[in-house]
Amino acid sequence: MTTDPISDYLTRIRNACMANHRIVEIPASNIKKEITKILFDKGYILNYKFEDDAVQGTIKIALKYHPVNKMPAITKLERISKPGLRKYRSSDNLPRVMNGLGIAILSTSQGVMTDKEARNLNVGGEILCYIF
Fold it and tell me: Can you tell me the distance from the alpha carbon of 29 to that of 20, in angstroms, rounded to the nearest whole number?
């Protein structure tokens, strides 16, 4: 049992990218499924599949690499809000990751979304991670 499942999720993806793996399997939860959907929509991963077992289920993620230099599409994953120190921001103080080249994933009252979507909807929330 991990105390921070989102950090474990990000670490598994980071380790798989560094080892040039094509597919990574992660124990599933609802928030991990939402983060995976965001990563797919923004083009950071090739594909994903949710497999429901009797107990918890798994998420299979196909990682994306550039065809020329074989570098992963995800260069950095950084956990911001941790269980010991939560980081919240209002809608007018949302961060810009690499001047808009990266994304910040937030957990808001209207669900899990990126910083750009939260700005458009004028909602704030807990900053889960930065991805670029």
Answer: 25
Buried b (16+ CB within 10 A) or exposed e, 91-101: beebeebeeee
Question: Residue 19: exposed, middle, or buried by beta-carbon count in 10 A (0-12, 13-18, 19+)?
Answer: exposed
Cα 19–chain centre separation: 19
Helix H, strand E, coil C: the string for 9-56 is: HHHHHHHHHHCCCCEEEEECCHHHHHHHHHHHHCCCEEEEEEECCCCC
Task: Count the alpha carbons within 13 Å of 97 in the hemisphere toward its beta carbon.
Answer: 21
Q: Is the pTM of this model over 0.85?
A: yes
Largest CA distance in the chain: 43
- Burial zone of 115 (CB within 10 Å; 0-12 exposed, 13-18 middle, 19+ buried): buried
Residue 4's CB: how many other CB atoms inside 10 A?
A: 14
* pLDDT tens, residue by residue, 77-129: 999 999 999 999 999 999 999 999 999 999 999 999 999 999 999 999 999 99
